[in-house]
Description:
- By secondary structure, the protein is of the alpha+beta class.
- It has 2 domains: 11-124, D-amino Acid Aminotransferase, Chain A, domain 1; 133-287, D-amino Acid Aminotransferase, Chain A, domain 2, CATH 3.20.10.10.
- Helices cover 26% and strands 30% of the residues.
- The strands form 2 sheets. Strands 7, 8, 9, 10, 11, 12, 13, 14 and 15 form a 9-stranded mixed sheet that branches. It has a 6-stranded antiparallel sheet with strand order 2-1-6-5-3-4.
- The chain is globular, with a radius of gyration of 19 Å.
Amino acid sequence: xxGSYADRDGTIWMDGKLVPWRDxxxxxxxxxxxxxxxxxxxxxxxxxxxxxxxxxxERLLASGRMLDMxxxxxxxEIETAKYEVMKANNLTDAYVRAxxxxxxxxxxxxxxxxNPVRLAVATWGWGNYYGDAKMKGAKLxxxxxxxxxxxxxxxxxxxxxxxxxCTMSKHTAEAKGCSDALFMDYRGYVAEATGANIFFVRDGxxxxxxxxxxxxxxxxxxxxxxxxxxxxxVHERHIEPAExxxxxxxxxxxxxxxVTPVGQIGDYTFEVGALTRDVSESxxxxxxx
Length: 289
């Protein structure tokens, strides 16, 4: 599938029914367009099965509650919608995007309590998020922006507003010939990439930033579980930027990214080593099992 996401064949599930892709529109005064009152999930289906589908649906509802936005659908209803729209589009291997937002209604200001909460699910075919970096290792810029403090915004929600600095950082990174950008957090510790969590390897042990001010990704949790099953020590901790010089391997995790090796972050370089490849291959087997 290529071309504009606004001009495609297919159907999208929207507020309880399937509608033609091109007709899945919202009003210009939709609250989410003006005030970022929106949460979403990114998921992948393999061989007709959405990996960790219910956990994604549960997190969508939790994200909505964190934004004071009760989503009026149950997990079971969201699950049905996801598989219904995949079937309607004749897809078995696909990316699935569920998004909930405050629509247009009686309020058009910061307050939006009287506006309806809406829900849509779209799905499409999508290859490697980082292209050939999946094989040779991604190159990351270091963003000038920082992930915010939990005292400033609900950092554990998968909320649209949290991605504004991600978009700006990724645009800057791509202009430099990089695949993505790495954030530090508000304290200066290593945090995450624009849409993926990060892992490092040193002398056989794995180190990953503590998810205390950013999203604790479902893929991140899955990979940590895989590593522990292999009796590999995983340190979830605060990581100083200067420590990157001492790490030998690095990879990113995320639903879109899956497990993607990293070859370079700023001036720091990493090998695409045996453990990185093993984790990547094992994850591929797991999601298709």
